[in-house]
Amino acid sequence: MTPSTAPLSLYWLPPAGDFSGEIAAARDAADDAETLFRRLVALAGRRLDFTQTLRLDRLLIASRDRLPARAPRLRLALAGNATLEQLAPGIRVGALRRGLLVDTLVAPFGQWRQQILDPGSALYDFKPDAIALLLDAHALLPELPLSASAQDAAAAVETAVDDVAQSWRTAQDHAQAAIIQLVPWLDEPPVLGHLEHRVPAARGALWTRLTVGLTEAAAAAGVALLDLRAASRAVGTQQLSDPALWYHAKQSIAPAAASWIGDHVARILGALRGLSKKVLVLDLDNTLWGGTIGDDGLDGIVLGQGSGPGEAYAGFQRYAKRLAERGILLAVSSKNEPAIVHAAFERHPEMVLRRRDFAAMEIGWGDKPQALRRIAKDLALGLDSLVFVDDNPAERELVRRTLPAVAVPELPEAPELYARCLADAGYYETVAFTGDDTKRTAHYAANRERRQMQSAATDIESFLRDLRMTLSVGPFGAADVPRIAQLINKTNQFNLTTRRYTEAEVGALMQDPGVVTLAARLADRFGDNGLTTVIIGRKLDDGEEPVLDIDSWLMSCRILGRRVEHAMLTVIAEKAGAAGARRLIGHYRPTPRNGIVRSLYAELGFTPVAGDEGSGETAWALSLGTAPLPPTDHVSIVHNG
């Protein structure tokens, strides 16, 4: 199945198979919470139509009380000018596809403005983590006569954008939730043909101006856009909406499109919770080039100018390179001879990707699941960070069965469609883009050099000293808020509590006098690792003495094993003492991914003070001024503010 044959079918997912049998088995099985959750996620990972999506959603809702308490969760409120109930199942199942449980509230029909303006509304009582404002062209496009001037058209659109932006600000003030704004598509027949976009007051021209205005306003306000313009051009706006449904039921989104649009909403929700993929693992033969290099030789593979397929493979490589430039790590998993592959990357004149573009390479004759495990371990990332692209259906199915956490798109047969398939799948959705993202491959390359130096070192102490690390620490800064929110929502391994905060909430923490914030950058002899550590502490009085309660402590996986946490504890203790605290209280909330920090507080000299056998959550205390702190002579600490 390809984009052209079934554009709204989530064609990149494997077929539904015996969906009825599997959903009945999931419904009737006496599974424990984790097994049931895995079953439901696996079902969501199939190519489901609208009816199948509804059936899975019903099972999901009926099973909510049986699912693991530590599964990632998010509360989403939907508000708009049209009927939106048909979207909720697709959003919930799309989120489940990403391992995220979403509770939804649909605001009363057409009352989006009242719900946002009233601080006592049901929308705010729901305490949403995110609010999706789904206003279509009927609500946003001004009604102007065709004779209206360009100035009148510009003023009318500016007023409409300002009105929406004010709604964002009001919602953020009342809820401190992430805002998702729909960029509406235009599903109206033109009245001026190809001149439609040149007459300022024509609907097409107004729509163009509106989309630009919304995009610029959202960038300034830190609002996420549900921007379906490119996707809707591919599938056709007539598939997304039905005039009859609008006039009779005020549905601006057709039920047949609900699962597809729900998946797009879920991508943004997943990105808010740090669940987007981080790595693209590529097969080589008939994936990055045509032919089998071991049989056809360097000159025999199909790549680049001279043939349509060759140019298509080169085009796919260019797309992968652009993903790497925005921070997605590239890796290779190929059954081949390493020397032959390395020669291809270095010597083929039409090769777009080079060895330096890859953060990891697994080339040999072992099975692909084992290679993917080694790649994940080498990059210090979970298997659920990987997307595996291979032209071979048997290899794809083996990975799906063996490593269900790895995303495996159902690649079309034509290489011309590889890039579109990967883009349509939305694995790498993001709600922020920072300068640190563009340096990610370089960071991992530097990490390889560090590992090589460590293997040559005679002991860990000399290795750490030879790194010549400098830790620059200060309170959160406005310029770093996108990166801080990104780390908070993406970091899963070294993350003591995995509490998630939106950009708006991070901004509010910066203004709260009862909160201590710390952001740290780490540099060493191999380069700058960027902003890699975030700590949030809350000043409390527990009835005996002032304490600083460590709400969140997280560090990027790429700096693990360098005892940076020892230096950060010294900084925390200094800041807590300056704030009048006599003790530090730390918390560990276990998740499937953060087991590496289970004993962190014990290792740092804290003593246990509380624990919950059911959830596994523990609390730890350290008396300031009396308990010794770990040594920090392996790193220089620079205070910024």
Query: Main sheet: which strands, in order across?
Result: 15-16-14-13-12-11-10-17
Question: How does CATH name the architecture of the largest domain?
Answer: 3-Layer(aba) Sandwich
Helix content: 40-55%
Shape: globular
Largest sheet: 8 strands, mixed
Unreliable spans:
none
Annotated CATH topology of the largest domain: Rossmann fold
Number of domains: 4
The span between the termini is 57 Å
Average pLDDT reading? 89
Range of strand content: 15-25%
| Rg, alpha carbons | 26 Å
The chain-level structural class is: alpha/beta
Number of strands: 17
CATH-assigned homologous superfamily of the largest domain: SGNH hydrolase
| Helical segment count | 26
- CATH C-level of the largest domain: Alpha Beta
Q: How would you sum up this structure, described in words?
A:
With 641 residues, this protein is α/β, with parallel strands linked by helices. It folds into 4 domains: 71 residues, no CATH class; 201 residues, Rossmann fold, CATH 3.40.50; 147 residues, HAD superfamily/HAD-like (Rossmann fold, 3-Layer(aba) Sandwich); 178 residues, Gcn5-related N-acetyltransferase (GNAT) (Aminopeptidase). Helix content is 42%, strand content 18%. Strand 15 and strand 16 form a beta hairpin. Helix 8 packs parallel to helix 9.
List the helices and strands and how they pair.
Elements: H1 19-28, H2 33-44, H3 50-62, E1 73-80, H4 88-96, E2 101-106, H5 112-117, H6 122-125, E3 130-134, H7 137-140, H8 150-175, E4 178-183, H9 203-221, E5 224-227, H10 229-235, H11 237-240, H12 243-249, H13 255-272, E6 279-282, H14 293-296, H15 308-325, E7 329-335, H16 338-347, E8 358-364, H17 368-378, E9 386-389, H18 393-402, H19 418-425, H20 435-438, H21 440-456, H22 460-467, E10 469-474, H23 481-490, H24 503-511, E11 515-524, E12 527-541, E13 546-555, H25 564-578, E14 583-588, H26 600-603, E15 607-611, E16 618-623, E17 635-639
Parallel strand pairs: 1-2, 1-3, 3-4, 4-5, 6-7, 6-9, 7-8, 10-17, 13-14
Antiparallel strand pairs: 10-11, 11-12, 12-13, 14-16, 15-16
Helix pairs in contact: 1-2, 3-4, 4-13, 8-9
